[in-house]
Amino acid sequence: KTSAAPFVPAEHTVTAIGAALPACEGCELYKHATQAVGGVGPAHAKMMVVGEQPGDQEDIKGLPFVGPAGRLLDQTLEELGIDRSELYVTNAVKHFKFVQKGKLRLHENPRLSEITACKPWLLAEIDAVRPKLIVCLGASAAKSLLGGTFGLMKQHGEVLSTPYAERVMATLHPSAILRARDDASRSQMMEMFKADLAKAALVM
Ligand code: URA
C-alpha cells in the first residue's frame, strides 16, 4: 500500500516537514515530477489554502500556485483585500501528475489513492500550522479533507468541522475557472469563488 507516512517526520513543524518532503517516494508520482512542492507561508498562518497538486510551473519552481491558477488566486485575493503572504498555501498532492504531449506536460487529476497516499503530508502541515480555517480549492483538496461524499457544487462556501481542523471550507479551483466553457459561466464561477473567499476572510 502506498503512503507518504514513512517519509513524514515525527516533528510536525513547517521546517522539519520542508526538510523531509524532497525524499518522499510514498507513491509513484515522484518518479516523473521534477520535485515535491510543499507549502509556503507563515508557520502559524490563520488561514491555510489547499490546492490539488503542483502544476507545470510549480513543479519547475518548487513553489505552490505560481502559474496561471496562482495568478488568478492572487488577483482575487488582492481584490478582496486578503494578503496572500499571510496565508499558508499548499496542495493535497505534493508531486505534479501529468501526461507528456510533445513539449507540453498536461495536468492529470490525481487518483483517490494518490490523494490518500499524500494525505500524511497535508495532515502534518495542518498540525504544524494549526490554522483557524482551511480553504480547499477544488474537488481533490475537498476529497482529502472533507471526504468522498462532499459535493463541491452544493456545499461550496459552507464552513464545516473535521477531525483535522474546526473550520474547513471548499470552493472552486481557480484552474476550473480558467477552463470555463464560455464567458457567462466564467463570470458566474468567479462570483462564486469571490463570495466564498470573502466569507472565508470573515470566518477567519
Ligand atoms: N494548481 C494547484 O492546485 N496547485 C498549485 O500549486 C498550482 C496549480
UniProtKB/TrEMBL annotation:
<comment type="similarity">
    <text>Belongs to the uracil-DNA glycosylase (UDG) superfamily. Type 4 (UDGa) family.</text>
</comment>
<feature type="domain" description="Uracil-DNA glycosylase-like">
    <location>
        <begin position="38"/>
        <end position="198"/>
    </location>
</feature>
<protein>
    <recommendedName>
        <fullName>Type-4 uracil-DNA glycosylase</fullName>
    </recommendedName>
</protein>
